[in-house]
Amino acid sequence: MDKRPASRPLHFFLAGRRFPSIVVFLFLVAFLLWYWISEPSLPQVSVSFTPPKQDVPPPPTWDWLKNWEQNLPQHDLHVSPPDGTTGRYVKFSNQAQQLGWNNILNEILMNAHLAHASGRGYVFPDYTWAGHHYPWSFSDEEKSQREWPPHTPLNALMSGPVAGGSWDVNDTTPRSISTAWFDVVCPHEARRYVHTSDLKQGMGDEPGDRIVTKWADFLRNAPERCIDIVPSSDDGFPQIFDIWLWGNTRLLPLWDSFSSSPVSRLLAASPIVKAAVDRNEYSFLPRTPRPAVKAGASAYDRVLSLHIRRGDYEGACKHFATWSSTFYGWNQLEFLPDRFIPPPGAEWGKNTPENFEIYMRRCLPSLEDVARKIRHARDNYGGDLDVVYILTNEKGEWLDELMDLLMNDGWSSVKTSKDLILESAEQKEVSMAIDMDIARRAGVFIGNGWSSFTSNIVHRRLVDGKSPMSVRFY
Questions:
Q1: N vs C: which end of the chain shows fewer Cβ within 10 Å?
Q2: Can you give the pLDDT at residue 143?
Q3: Is the sign of the CA dihedral 128, 132, 136, 142 positive or negative?
Q4: Could you give the CA distance from residue 447 to residue 464 in angstroms, rounded to a whole number?
Q5: Average pLDDT over the chain, rounded to an integer
Q6: Which residue, among 95, 88, 94, 97, has the nearest Cα to 117 in the 3D structure?
Q7: Percentage of the chain surpassing pLDDT 90?
Q8: First and final CA of the chain: distance in angstroms?
């Protein structure tokens, strides 16, 4: 190791003479530099600063919103007809629970449509989560100390008559009431319990409009004020609008009446969802000059949104191919572009390798397939688009590569679900509804034809009056 030369006191160099102050200053600086450079090297100590870990906010209790729902004006025994103790109501205790939100939303909307068609008030439930979908995770001990499975008030996810809002002027249908209020206004001794098999038997292949007609006639003519539809023990899928209907073209005859129903027309995002969408609009503001062709007034009019389901969806896609499945729900509408007709050659529970390839390309598209569809949709759209928004459960290299590919294709901005700024635990809990509302507003939407999430976005867009050509599928 080099030895540092012995240093002399500074006053040795200054003794006997007065230097101008500037010279002294420069000499001092030079001396300190020499001292520092000649200092023997010391072991380097790496010091890093780790910011304190921020506490993850706990899930919302929703106490304020539960209180708000409890105090809806129709939740009053003395309210004027058609509500109150004279109101005619139907509760769907056969309704599915603990599934993904969009599977539940399908049924909520269709049951509310049926209730309205029969002149009865709909009994709206909380959304009951499947534990593995919930944004927070808990140990078994923690679950035992809280409400489990978790519940989210319906009015956190949506607004409108389905969730207790008002119907159109001169509509005499009772307003929807909560499950808790149904127990008050319709005590058990005042209810008629109807088992699903009482009416479903023999209707397995009936089109959707006939299913609604049969049930609506029954509910309209039943003299009892309070009807509770309960699952039959011999019915493996006891929903009135079950999975066999949603995955079949038998659903489509319902479109005209359902899409024009006040259930659809008056459906809206909740204030919590709206606030999050408005907060994130900054991310979608245009970054390019205003086009020669007049763009829409909303920033979202210049957005192309796409739903990409990956990861766990590969197994689902193989299942669809094995059983030669059609598209799901409203994705089957005949006037939409990019329709899918199952290719011939399949057998019961078995399909050809060529058909498997067709299914996988459209259900689990590659990077190139996605980019090609985006280019095609942009070229076929009459308006101006400059932002891509990706609704996805994908993360990692595949998503990074897609975003790079799109930026190289000339898009001014590419955003994903993970870029959203959610300002509260409440917004985090309803993030799937926030994603859905952004896709509803976007100029163009590209979805997965086998997805209930895509189907509900298609429904909202078409009811809003958006062009069928703005709805595309892989």
A1: N
A2: 92
A3: positive
A4: 17
A5: 88
A6: 88
A7: 78
A8: 69
Sheet bearing 177-178, strands edge to edge = 177-178, 121-124, 89-92, 226-230, 191-195
Element housing 200 (H / E): helix 197-200
Please tell me the distance from the alpha carbon of residue 232 to that of residue 239, in angstroms, as a whole number. 10
HSE-CB at 110 with a 13 A cutoff on CA atoms is: 30
Contact by Cβ (8 Å): 69, 155: yes
Can you give the pLDDT at residue 204?
A: 83
Q: What is the rounded distance in angstroms from the CA atom of residue 120 to the CA atom of residue 229?
A: 13
Each residue's pLDDT tens digit, 347-394: 999 999 999 999 999 999 999 999 999 999 999 997 789 999 999 988
Predicted structure pTM score: 0.85
**Is pLDDT above 80 for 36?**
no
Alpha carbon separation from 170 to 82, 167, 173, 174 (Å, rounded): 11, 8, 9, 11
Tokens (6 digits) for 273: 């969802």
Q: Both tokens of residue 291?
A: 């086009």
CB atoms within 10 A of CB 61: 12
β-strand partners of 230:
195
Q: What DSSP letter does each residue of 64-113 carry, written as one string?
A: HHHHHHHT-TTS-TTPPTTSGGG--EEEETTS--SS-HHHHHHHHHHHHH
| Pick from 38-52, 180-194, 297-311: least confident | 38-52
**HSE-CB of 225 using CA atoms within 13 angstroms:** 15
pLDDT-based confidence at residue 296 (cuts at 50, 70, 90)? low
- The span from the CA of 196 to the CA of 193, in Å, is 10
Local confidence band at 16 (pLDDT 50, 70, 90 cut-offs): very low
Write out the DSSP string of 337-374: SS---PPS--BTTB--HHHHHHHHHHHS--HHHHHHHH
State which amino acid sits at residue 37. Answer: I
Q: How far apart are CA 146 and CA 435, in angstroms?
A: 28
The conformational region for residue 88 under phi > 0 = left, psi -120 to 50 = alpha, else beta, is beta
Q: State how far the Cα of 98 lies from the Cα of 127, in Å rounded to an integer.
A: 8
- Band of pLDDT at residue 18, cut at 50, 70 and 90: very low
